[in-house]
């Protein structure tokens, strides 16, 4: 009777399992939600004061949240979901006009899943289709809140705490 090499049998079984797992898509259902945060009255007042000072009167508040937006171009009928990857060009700045971040059409940003973004983006990106352009006026609690966004190594802030964030964004592509 032939002797069976146990290590070889285990290696073959493991290899077969790994190969069979390759190429399978994750079929886990997307359960992410855009969020339901409502800004405080003080935060809402900061956003409204900015909008009024800039003469932005054709604005829409999203469900009483304190998050305001203006859709400049609706885009096509394709809409992104919470677990969708998107490619965007955007400019983010403070009320004083200082730009804190941007990605141009020539060098856009791709985000693997909308659900991983700040709540202000999660709630407004699905309002436009590919090719759409939107301006978002995000109160702190729907942005980076009281913590801001800080470099853990230097302690310097990428985004200041309690900042109203303004974004001009073009949705270039909905990926997948």
TrEMBL record:
Q: Which reaction does it catalyse?
A: [protein]-peptidylproline (omega=180) = [protein]-peptidylproline (omega=0)
Q: What Gene Ontology molecular-function terms does this entry list?
A: peptidyl-prolyl cis-trans isomerase activity
Give a yes or no for keyword Signal in this entry.
Answer: yes
Q: Which residues are in the PPIase FKBP-type domain?
A: 83-175
The UniProt similarity line reads: Belongs to the FKBP-type PPIase family.
| Endpoints of the signal sequence | 1-21
Q: Which UniProt keywords apply?
A: Isomerase, Rotamase, Signal
> What sort of enzyme, by top EC class, is this?
isomerase
Its Enzyme Commission number? Answer: 5.2.1.8
Provide the protein name.
Peptidyl-prolyl cis-trans isomerase
Pfam families, from UniProt? FKBP_C
Which species is this record about?
Lacibacter cauensis
- Give the PANTHER family listed for this entry: 39 KDA FK506-BINDING NUCLEAR PROTEIN (PTHR43811:SF19), FKBP-TYPE PEPTIDYL-PROLYL CIS-TRANS ISOMERASE FKPA (PTHR43811)
């Amino acid at each position: 009777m032939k002797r069976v090499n146990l290590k070889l049998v285990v290696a073959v079984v493991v290899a077969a399992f790994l190969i069979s797992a390759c190429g399978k898509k994750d079929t886990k259902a997307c359960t992410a939600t855009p969020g339901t945060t409502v800004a405080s009255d003080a935060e809402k007042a900061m956003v409204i004061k900015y909008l009024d000072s800039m003469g932005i009167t054709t604005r829409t508040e999203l469900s009483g949240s304190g998050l305001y937006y203006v859709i400049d171009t609706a885009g096509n009928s394709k809409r992104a979901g919470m677990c969708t990857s998107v490619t965007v060009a955007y400019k983010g700045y403070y009320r004083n006009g200082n730009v804190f971040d941007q990605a141009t059409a020539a060098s856009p940003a791709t985000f693997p899943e909308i659900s991983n973004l700040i709540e202000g983006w999660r709630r407004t990106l699905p309002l436009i289709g590919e090719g759409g352009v939107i301006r978002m006026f995000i109160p702190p609690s729907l942005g980076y809140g009281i913590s801001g966004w800080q470099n853990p190594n230097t302690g310097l802030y990428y985004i200041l705490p309690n900042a109203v964030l303004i974004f001009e964004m073009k949705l270039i592509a909905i990926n997948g």
